[in-house]
Design brief:
The chain is mostly beta strands and 679 residues long. The strands form eleven sheets. Strands 4-9-10-18-17-20-21-15 form an eight-stranded mixed beta sheet, with no helix packed on it. The termini are far apart. Residues 1-23, 396-403, 502-506 and 602-609 have low confidence and may be disordered.
């Protein structure tokens, strides 16, 4: 019997690969999921006794995942725990989801329902259910809060009923627990449920496509993060919006429920189309860097029925404290004010006629280009973002509140060229660009006429003519090489940079490595051979927060198996086998060198050696004859995938990894691995 049981198990394991694939797979993480909340209409909150809330979950990743758990809590002031009951979920949709082993395909949806009564259960004319006002709701996945609903104002009497996870999107009229409805003497028609979606969407727009985490004004944070909402034609609802959702880059989702008094049922606000949503008023400013999605839902009457119109806006959020420039090996000093001469002032953008702007139009920008030349006989450095101050003007005190600078932010007038140090030799020039919105549109951000900008430099300042009104945020480019070349959008610059780039041609790859190159691995750069093996590196563009991952390649061209040690060989190559150059060919200092340089500067003593290595984990990885192994950039590891940012402080920019330089050597034209880091 034991043998037959084992044979049956083995047979099932052999012939059921699909079952194994459903059972084993990546767990759905917050980053992979979109979570939305749908509520019954505000007007029905008090007119009906039963209500239904829908939690919709969608897999936005490119791979399937298993939604192992999705736990919902209804916290109150007095307790934080389960207030659910009323019978099991016998629906077909719940059975379907269970039969798929909780597996969610890319783009697949699932949902849970919460039903509650706002009228207590009675017996012999006595109310014996305890009614509580619940201000929020949270949902956890994998012991991590993935959803936080605020200002819910849910009046729950007794126990609410929550469904199991159900397959697909919510369908109006879905089956609920018969036991729970019987307990509160409810029929399905007594329960108000979320409104159907509007065919015509709302339009949600951000004043600026890039914003900063809350910080000081001097860091670039302007505090006026506003969304503009245009609802479709049609009255309805008491508020401009019913819900506002914020989904941050790590998947954490916050939903704020908007409440307006019953007196506003037929107020002018109910029929307005355009609204300003100041996010700080709702405590919905972004809290994490990355792309943040905002979504609003508004109740409108369209085609004779009440529907929910949704609008979506995406904003890139950055940290104003992120460094703009790498630390480099140089004896040069930043340019002083008395070394620079303003050579030219160019205007960008056209005159704007505000009468021709639609209410939700993208407001055109205007700006200036400033070219300066090193008028001294001493070579110096410029780089990063010019330090500009915006002096307040008489009659425009709001300039101190609402105006900030977006650091090297692309807009309609210019495209960034990367943030790097520029060596400004005598008579050499460099330039930068400043742009802003010169008109209001419907925007109510503070505006001011800026006749001058103050350019702050070591040992002095320069007065720059600007002469344009600015409403809200100003964009300031990083320093750009050379005098202004009439190519602010980099149409010619990008082509020249691409044609002049230097990467290892495929012919230089070992044959075994060339066979395993794919678009996902990227083309590696192979370094000079070390003993029996040859090391290489590959990368792909990544954000500053991704820490610049690198895949290590190892080629064994010999006829014998070679053991590569995890520490002495792989770690040793990563620590001492190459140098990093910035866009201008300067060697970038490693983190330990920066620390040692700072310590030496404070003590007056010389610095320490560039790097020391100690091995605590060292074993051999066998490399077969005439073969090539490499790391997988999609699967972070330790031995064959390294983070360049763990050893070098690398802001956004273009870099090259080259064989180890000799002391004091500088390579402007060299073959190496190009590494692109975006903000």
């Amino acid at each position: 019997m034991r043998f037959r049981g084992f044979l049956l198990f083995l047979l099932l394991w052999t012939v059921s690969p699909s079952l194994r694939a459903q059972t084993y797979g990546p767990i759905c993480t917050a980053e992979m999921l979109d979570v939305r909340v749908s509520l019954p209409p505000e007007a029905l909150a008090a007119s009906t006794s039963g209500h239904l809330l829908v939690l919709d979950v969608r897999n936005r990743a490119k791979e399937p995942c298993n939604l192992s758990d999705f736990i919902v809590h209804l916290p109150t002031q007095e307790e934080y725990g389960s207030r659910f009951g009323g019978g099991p979920d016998r629906s077909t949709a719940a059975k379907t989801f269970a039969n798929t082993q909780s597996r969610m395909l890319p783009g697949g949806e699932a949902h849970r329902l919460i039903a509650w009564s706002s009228v207590p259960q009675t017996q012999e004319h006595l109310d014996y259910d305890r009614c509580l006002s619940l201000d929020g709701l949270t949902a956890l996945s994998g012991n991590k809060v993935i959803l936080d609903v605020q200002h819910l104002w849910l009046v729950q009497c007794g126990e609410a009923w929550i469904s199991s996870m159900r397959a697909g999107a919510f369908v109006p009229g879905e089956e609920l627990s018969a036991e729970w409805m019987a307990r509160y003497s409810l029929s399905r028609n007594d329960i108000s449920e979320p409104l159907p979606p509007s065919i015509e969407p709302a339009m949600l727009r951000s004043s600026d496509s890039i914003s900063y985490l809350k910080s000081s004004f001097e860091s670039g944070y302007n505090g006026w993060f506003t969304l503009w909402l245009e609802r479709p034609i049609g009255n309805g609802g008491r508020c401009a919006f019913r819900t506002l959702r914020r989904r941050e880059a790590d998947g954490h989702t916050t939903v704020v429920v908007n409440h307006c008094s019953a007196a506003k049922e037929n107020s002018p606000e109910a029929s307005k189309r355009f609204f300003e949503i100041l996010l700080s008023d709702y405590r919905m400013l972004p809290k994490r860097v990355g792309h943040v999605d905002y979504e609003s839902t508004s109740e409108i009457v369209h085609g004779g029925r009440t529907v929910a119109a949704s609008g979506i806006a995406t904003v890139e959020v950055r940290d104003p404290t992120d460094p703009m420039l790498p630390a480099i090996e140089t004896n040069l000093k930043p340019c002083r004010a008395d070394q620079l001469a303003l050579q030219a002032l160019m205007k960008l953008g056209n005159q704007v006629d505000t009468r021709n702007l639609a209410p939700m139009a993208n407001v055109p920008r205007a700006g200036r280009v400033y070219t300066v030349t090193n008028s001294s006989q001493e070579t110096c450095l410029v780089g990063g973002i010019p330090d500009l101050q915006f002096p307040s003007q008489p009659g425009f005190p709001q300039i101190k509140v609402g105006l900030g600078a977006c650091r090297d932010c692309s807009d309609a007038l210019f495209t960034p060229r990367g943030q790097h140090w520029i060596t400004l030799e005598p008579a050499r020039s460099a330039h930068f660009i400043v742009t802003g919105k010169p008109v209001y549109g419907i925007y109510h951000n503070p505006c001011a006429l800026l006749s001058k900008l103050v350019f702050v430099l070591p040992a002095g300042t320069m007065q720059l003519d600007y002469g344009l009104a600015s409403c809200g945020q100003i964009d300031v480019s990083a320093w750009r090489d050379g005098a202004y070349d009439d190519d602010p959008l980099n149409l010619r610059y990008s082509l020249a940079k691409k044609s002049g780039s230097s990467i290892a041609p495929p012919s230089e790859l070992p044959e075994a490595c060339a066979k395993v190159v794919t678009p996902e691995t990227s083309l590696p750069y192979m370094f000079p051979s070390q003993r029996a093996v040859q090391f290489g590196l590959s990368s792909r563009p990544s954000t500053f927060r991704d820490n610049a991952p690198l895949a290590i390649w190892v080629s064994n061209p010999t006829d014998k198996e070679v053991g590569v040690m995890t520490c002495m060989d792989l770690d040793g190559f990563f620590i001492g086998g190459f140098d990093v150059l910035d866009q201008s060919g300067n060697r970038v200092l490693a983190k330990n060198e920066v620390k040692e340089k700072d310590q030496a500067g404070r003590s007056g003593m010389p610095g320490y050696p560039r790097q020391l290595m100690m091995c605590y984990r060292n074993f051999a990885i066998p490399i077969q004859p005439h073969s090539c192994i490499h790391g997988d950039l999609d699967k972070p590891g330790y031995d064959l995938v390294k983070n360049l940012g763990s050893m070098y402080p690398l802001p956004a920019g273009s870099y090259q990894i080259v064989p180890r330089l000799k002391e004091g050597e500088k390579r402007l034209q060299t073959t190496g691995l190009a590494v692109e880091i975006t903000p």
